[in-house]
Amino acid sequence: MRVVLAVLAMFVAGPALALSCIRPDVANTYKRAAEAEEIYVVIHGTLTFDQTLAPDNDLTNQNRPDTLIPARLNGTSLSRDGFVSTFRRNISLVLQCFGPWCGGAVSGAEYLAFLQKTDAGYRMIIDPCGSLVFPEPTQAQLDQARSCMRGQRCSPRQ
User: Which domain of life is it from (predicted)?
Assistant: First the structure.
């Protein structure tokens, strides 16, 4: 009887599981990237890749490794003058999973992205909480990134 109750409890508790994320904020992300040991560049552009290579969020696989997908990002990189330098590169799209939840992206969509620069190239890392990317960024988000880069107001949301 105890075994049956334990199994029933697992099924009842299952749907209550949820991923809790703090909503990403450009200023928080900028500060975190600036303080990191890794090197990051800020890009505003359009991402293209084969979406069939992305993992499904089907809640069945608890221990998924990162999914690396060849991708292309066309846009501009951020400098003190704003988003003015052309950036057209092949990159690695890294979709990370936290338990059964995986980061996702849309091919053809516009992104404000903090790309990690490595010896092997650039990596656009997307976790399920969207910590380093802002899909379809607003003008306010782009302005916040420029302000942070210029050393002006870079106050994270409270």
Answer: Bacteria
